[in-house]
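Deviations from the work plan: none for this task. Representative record:
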Amino acid sequence: MTGATNGRLREISRRTALGALGVGIVGATVASWPRLSGTDIPGRGDNSLSIAIMGTAADAAARQRAIDAFTRLHPEIRIKVQAIQAVDWKDFFTKILTMVAAGTPPDVVYVATEGAQLFADKLAHPLDEYLRRDAADMAEYFDDVHPSLVEAFMYKGSLYQLPMDWNAANMYYNTTAFRQAGLDRPADDWTHLDFRNSLVAMRKARPADFTPYYWTNRLFGGVVPWLYANETSFLKETRSTGGDWLWDGFYAKDPSRSLRSGGYQWLEPNADDPRVFESFDYLRGLVKDGLGVRPEEGGGNSLVGLFASNRIGTTPAGGYWVQGLHEAGMKENDFDVQFFPKWKSQRHQFGTAGYAIMKTAKDKDAAWEWIKFSASREAMELIFPNPVTTPARRSMVNEQLYTGKGPAHWKVFYDTLDKYPTTGPIPAPPQQAAVETALMKNVSLAVSGDERQLKEALGSMQRDLELALRRQS
Amino acid sequence: MTTTSERTQAPAHAVARRKTSWNTVLRVVLLLIAAALTLGPVLWTLSTSLRSPSESFKLPPSFFPWNPDFTSYAQVFQQLDMVILVLNSALVTGLIAVGQMVSAAMAGYAFANLKFRGRGALFSIVLATMMVPVQVTIVPVFMLIRGMGLSDTLLALILPAIPTAFGTFLMRQYFLGLPADLAEAAAIDGASPWRTFRSVYAPLAVPGMAIVGILAFNFHWNEFFRPLIMTISEKNFTLPLGLVSLQGNMGTGSISVVLAGVVLSMIPALVVFIFGQRALQAGLTAGTGK
Amino acid sequence: MSTTTRHRAEPAGKVAPPAAHAKAGRHSQPWLAWLFLAPTILGMGMFTLLPIVASVVLAFFRWDIISAPTFVGFDNFAEVVQDPTVRVSFVNTLVFVVVAVALQMGLALGLAIMVQEKLPAWLRTFFRSAFFFPLILSAASVSIFMRYLFNEQFGVVNWLLSLVGIPAVPWLTTSGGSAAVVILVYVWQNFGFSFLLFVGGLASIPVETYEAASLDGATGWRKHLHVTLPLLSPTTLLASVMAIISALQVFDQPYVLTRGGPGDSTRTAVMVIFESAFQRLEFGQASAIGVILTLIIMAITAAQFRLSKRFVFYQ
């Protein structure tokens, strides 16, 4: 009897609860509709200028002061910055292409060297007409920016981006590890053999739990700096003609004027070059003798922590690393930076980034105004208050930026360009994604086996690169 | 296990007993090793997330956070808009779960209790969709979503995930497990088939639906691939995507911050684990009856 | 309805044999059935079946999203079949499935038998929860922390091995090592699923069966070989079908752990689909690979069910 009543009661209360739950769910769905349909995202669907950058909300917020300053200057242009989170540039470009596919491309995209030619070839609008029009205003910018950076954004005689920030692959070293091994600061023109000797000394001083040379398998800072120093690369590097309008217009008096061209071109694979073999063989030797690690693909996520905990002697990195090391607790004298070691030459590898206007942009004039403003010293100071990257303007790579954070020899950063004007960009043809994969997937095998395995890996790299370069995109 | 009273049994028996108890010890030791291997990495993650970045690579590792340092957690909140990530994940997984519960219950009921032509064939087709990798259909789905004007919205994640083959399969099993005379009794009382479902079967199926809901929650809370493709704006990101981006470009991410993010993302799943474990285990084993 | 046999432990989910139910569905109102099915069938039609058809069609076109698609006939299939990376990725996927599923099933079955034998209730609950726990984590975050654990120089795994005198293993930087890591991480996270299926299956084996076997003199592993395994075969079929289907689609682990490298050693079929579609914008080729993969999955599943007719023992 009571059981039955109980049962019915339970039945009723269960039904009431279910009903309430149902109403609650419908209510919650209705209330969150703007979130579900994305209509609560400000600026969506209106005609403001949408700018895509790689980063997080924090990075977008860091640009707010620059945006405010821009709005004071151009109250008629509304700016919307979209921070797009990505693991690496390849991932970021995938997202931008997805936006294009979704029919909602941004108007302006912050593109690094890795994607410069992909965008120039397919998606971006050249800046030439604007630069000619506003030449007088722009002279000051080009005076302050090294032409090597600008040339990286030349494609078939046209300029597609203005460099905003950049980084070269210099050599960071842990000063404590150097001292323990009885080493002084290396000379500016230390060679790859000197470098190897320092690694040996560090290995002797700390036999375990320590890596003299840590490196990662990436397009930037991986194997490429060793190829550049050896005056070669995994792709045949040629230049296109043209671009004299820019060089004569802005860099007529630059000592490296004669080196400049209409842009880099990477059309053929070059992994079968004997000097490529030589560089790889050198790295293979480091790995074999326990001086360097076998590089992880896409690795480097743990690099700051490892370096900050004094477990790494040297690693290639650029100015972007300073803030991270500072935040990980390294004092300004705990680490320092030196040029990449010399081999045949001391040509460095660098990567740079800047805004590109999309072909599909509704208001290209407004987009140009944003780019022009971003290139101004005022905007750059608002955007780069900390050494999370190296500003493209020479005058901003100064004492003030590195005080209290290190490294002591921060001058190395911009001197890399000024002292070695042949320093070149990350090799990245329009087929960047496929080329990068073709390189990276063969590096680990190449450096972690015997000579035969190295030859095989380079052979397969050559084949993979051929295939990659033949692709349409 | 062995009690004193058992020890006083006949000698032959005692030998057998001792043998089983040695077996038991070995068994428990093996199980403990397996449990340590299963939980160890998670404990390490937790304790490393509570250390300062410069200590994160100390060996021997610690598996217990003795002196917790919460700066990495503060960093996570600084770098990621955790509120919006959690809200998005909750909305997406919640609505998918509810949608799956309702649609799977209805479809499962039809497959179990209603007769119609082509039932077997249709059920096979539903099951067969489980075999198609999501990567195969993602491009057309993406274009479809674009056509519906839903690009880069949470709805783009929710709508395609509502029809569920596994949920339908589970609910069918569940309804098959309910006594058939319920329907007969209801029919004798003159209840329409719809009423029979609503008043008799649906309430009884709530535990089954809960299983479908929890499974959906667990799967979609952790889903990585579809959000990777379907969402672009950071405002529409779900937790796993936010986490991966914590790793930082060019190795500027810090291990303890990354792991702090991992730990934070575990919390909701952990809550579901604690409260829904029973039902979830039941759900996963439900299909094994036959 | 529910069987009256004594169970060795309470089955986690009570599901009566469907046989008892055969006569239940006798309402012949097809429109009602279709009404009930509408949300699922329409949804699947739209978001699964239609896209499958579209995918097959797309496989005959060259399309990069930016420009208009062009019809290329069987070119995509021809190119894909000759592409060494695609071939390797399919071989990798098959090897991965065989090894990972075998490990997963073996581990799960062994642990399930050990847990279901006499054990204090709280300990049994603890073990069940522990083995189940990794399932609730996301594969992406698991891969993130496993990557640190397997680091050659600084990882905990190599440190543990060094305690017993094993030199540092280059886990993520050699072909064999990274394949092993992807498999271990995958199995670590997923064996709990098969484990629970087996626990459920074991719980539904009547105690009498074992008593009868004991009378016949069967003990220990012989008992399991001759009684448990045959009676568990329906569970084994279900568990292996599900394990194989999900292992064939593995993506998150290799994507985060190794990005498919070094070389192509951990590149799986779905990774190649992802890369050619979203990184190289070759949507036609991606679709062609997808179509081939789907056909393979279907063939494998069909083969399993065919085999099961011979080897699965129904009570």
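Chain A touches chain B through 59 residues (CB under 8 Å).
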